[in-house]
Design brief:
Helix content is 49%, strand content 14%. The protein contains twelve helices and nine strands. β5, α5 and β6 form a beta-alpha-beta unit.
Length: 296
């Protein structure tokens, strides 16, 4: 058992709620806030204090953990929390914020005397609930003893990418990883859509690639969500996947790289969201292959 920390968790959606729950189960004092309070309230059963405001959530916190939609949302919520932030506290910024947002977040941390950690996580609902995500982290080595118990509670592994959170090395690695995840998700949907169109049993395809280098557990898992009608509750929502895909495209553009697959994936996710699948698992991008919902 590590020393008990007080952790203010700002954002209790799919990932934030799981992280808050695991922190409480690890014996830390958790003060949780979410803009839609109903999403935070179930955490009370795990011992978390449900705060009415971001400022209340971070009062006396050793560590503040943000897991909200994007970089601007993270900055907004920290501005709301600012009156109660304790100088010297660590800020674990776990949102996939994008490269451009990191500088502003780090500047806010410096202005308020916070120790800034760029720490997005790789994983979806189930790994998060099991405390099995991978934490990609960058921040000063001399304060890691404070944040490592937090990372240990929410993840199975921490991969340190540097000592300067403001440099965004963890976020850059997260975007690279997500580019692969999103491409694989989009390809899974297209495989299933083409199978339907050509009247091919998807199982024939799975049998064809079984055990070979083209086989992939992720493909089978995401395909299963579609084929078995298990798109809700989302492991990772379509709208969030669309946001991440756009961040990847923008990062490529700003660095002279054209990412056609990422751009097409963003369009697929946005189309699926417009069709009403925004809160479903990102595997629901499958439906973007059709003008109307396919009839079984």
């Amino acid at each position: 058992m590590t020393d008990q920390l007080t952790v203010g968790v700002l954002g209790t959606g799919i990932m934030g709620a799981a992280m808050a729950r695991n922190l409480a189960r690890a014996g830390h004092l958790v003060r949780a806030w979410n803009r839609t309070r109903a999403k935070a309230e179930p955490l009370a059963a795990d011992g978390a204090h449900i705060a009415a405001t971001p400022a209340e959530a971070v009062q006396g916190a050793d560590v503040v953990l943000t897991m909200v939609y994007d970089g601007p949302a993270a900055l907004d919520v920290m501005r709301e929390a600012a009156p109660a932030l304790r100088p010297g506290a660590a800020w674990v910024q776990a949102t996939t914020a994008g490269i451009e947002a990191i500088a502003g977040l780090a500047a806010f941390a410096e202005e308020h005397g916070l120790v800034f950690y760029d720490a997005p996580v790789l994983g979806t609902r189930r790994p998060a609930e099991a405390g099995q995500v991978t934490v990609l982290a960058a921040g000063p080595a001399d304060s890691r003893a404070v944040v490592e118990p937090v990372f240990d509670a929410v993840g199975a592994r921490t991969l340190w990418t540097g000592e300067d959170g403001a440099a965004g090395s963890a976020t850059r690695l997260k975007l690279v990883a997500n580019s692969w995840v999103l491409a694989a998700t989009a390809a899974t949907g297209e495989v299933l859509a083409l199978s339907r169109a050509l009247e091919v049993d998807p199982q024939s395809f799975f049998d064809l690639i079984a055990g070979g280098p083209l086989d992939m557990g992720y493909l089978r898992a995401k395909a299963g969500l579609v084929l078995n009608g298990q798109l809700s509750p989302a492991q990772f929502a379509v709208v969030t996947a669309a946001k991440d895909a756009r961040l990847i495209v923008e990062a490529g553009q700003r660095n002279g790289v054209r990412l056609d697959v990422a751009a097409a994936t963003a369009e697929r996710m946005e189309r699926a969201a417009a069709q009403g699948h925004g809160d479903e698992d990102m595997a629901a991008a499958y439906f973007a292959s059709f003008d109307e919902k396919p009839v079984d």
